[in-house]
Amino acid sequence: MKKTLWLTVALLITPHLFAQNVPVQEYILDNGMRLLMVPRKGDPNVAAGWVAKVGSVNEAPGITGISHLFEHMMFKGTHTIGTNNIKENLQLIQEMDAVKAEIRQEEQKLIERQRLGEISDISDPKNRSPHHQELLARYEALLKREKELIIKDEFDRIYTSAGASGMNAGTDYDATVYFVNLPANKLELWFWMESDRLSNPVFREFYSERDVVKEERRLRTDSTPTGKFREEFDSIFWESAPYSWPVVGWPSDLDAITREEARAYFDLNYAPNNITAVLVGDFDPAQAIELARKYFGRLKRGPKDPAAPRTREVKQLAEVRMIAYAETSPEAVIRYHTVPDGHRDEPALRILADLLNGRTGRLYQSLVLEQAVANSVSASSNGYKYEGYFEFNGVAKPGKTPEEVEAAIYKEIEKIQKEPVGERELQKVKNQNAATDFRRLENNFQLMYQLLAYDSGRGWREINTDPKLIQAVMPEDIQRVANTYFSPENRTVGIYYTKKKEAGLKTSEGGR
């Protein structure tokens, strides 16, 4: 009760009461791997994780989705975990790869026949040759034998039997993270487990796991009312930047990625010089450093550092519109190109999103309460590692159209562009930001995750400097970024109508 009251009072006074630096201890191994440590006495647990600084933005056409596929493969075990006969397991993998190579040749013939219009569906078994069918049968026999050698989910069971919890991973455009909460006295187990899967991975069930990812894609994208449309919207918005393809990958690529391609991708992007590990909790930093040397120190540095994506987004010259009919409420989506994470304009864009958002924000007060044209409305500033965008979403009330919501949003944008934000309104949002940042630092897991995210981008030290940049935003900064980025020629608009009998259709205006 006292803590809640103190937070409330502090919000009314000044955000500086919340300011604090995260006392991070950094150690860099000889192989380039970075270890960040925040020891906290009291809670006998440690939030532990590591980040490979690679995501879908580092992919290329033909292998889209490979970063996310790796997130799955990294739980399939090693030479010592996940099998009862590693020698036979490795031999089977070689045989399966050889058969798969022949199957790909047969599949390529079908693709060529489809291209020439001789067949309409390459997945139809009737179009396969006898040799193709025989190869598939041989592969299924090998797959069945591999399953007999696998100790299912052994990686997870080792952790849970030691009292760990929350083991998981996640892939985004710019990074892939792996994390777990574990008792402090099991810290050496974490170092051994994680170093083992980095040094001795076995991509078991590789081709069947591709099918698991395809099913995940089907559930999250293909089977949702607007999933495929939003995917299409992304590909329209990003004309040249590698953010245009989905993190889960394009279906044709998921069908075609090979284990050899995966291994090459792993060797480059999962080398220790592209990885940062983070520990937050009750542990001894000196002991952690010794364990890092012993286990992570055996990983070999990559021959070269992964290169940043070469292709940058070209400047948009004309408004683009997408019109779709979906099993959803009428909705307007307005997206503007802005700036990447760390750009000098990003703090003002983040504050602007907060001014517009929430039940006390400008959008809700105007579009939902005053004008009654929308049921819900939101704004978000999204700064990725190499590019960024600002997005507005508004769901129309029954009897109202998405165009009415769109027009109302533009009026709110014009107000921001013409009239400086009041000091009191601005300070309220700054205080809310300061309180949120403070609360995030209190939780070990959230702090661990933030450090992983920061270090995969501009570097972990920015966790201590970014809050100050937010507090330094002035009304004229908000007005300036609104006028700089919110122009008609810089936006892409998606209009969703409730689907009846119409098929989805897309129009592109302005020649993009």
Helix tally equals: 18
Strand content: 15-25%
**SS class:** alpha+beta
Distance N to C terminus: 57 Å
Secondary-structure element series: HEEEHHHHEEHHHHHEHEEHHEEHHHHHE
List key phrases describing it.
18 helices, 6-stranded mixed sheet, single chain, disordered C terminus, 11 strands, alpha+beta, Cytochrome Bc1 Complex, Chain A, domain 1, disordered N terminus, 512 residues, 16% strand, 5-stranded mixed sheet
What can you tell me about this protein's structure?
The protein is an alpha+beta fold. The chain folds into two domains: 25-83 and 150-298, Metalloenzyme, LuxS/M16 peptidase-like (Cytochrome Bc1 Complex, Chain A, domain 1, 2-Layer Sandwich), CATH 3.30.830; 320-498, Metalloenzyme, LuxS/M16 peptidase-like (Cytochrome Bc1 Complex, Chain A, domain 1), CATH 3.30.830. Helices cover 46% and strands 16% of the residues. The chain contains 18 helices and eleven strands. It has helices spanning 2-13, 66-73, 86-115, 130-149, 154-161, 187-199, 206-222, 227-237, 251-256, 259-269, 285-295, 346-356, 362-370, 402-418, 423-442, 444-456, 462-471, 475-485; strands spanning 25-28, 34-39, 45-52, 165-171, 176-183, 275-281, 320-326, 331-337, 374-383, 388-396, 491-498. The chain has a six-stranded mixed beta sheet, sandwiched between helices. Strands 7-11-8-10-9 form a five-stranded mixed beta sheet, with helices on both faces. The radius of gyration is 26 Å and the shape is globular. The relative contact order is 0.16. Residues 1-17 and 502-512 have low confidence and may be disordered.
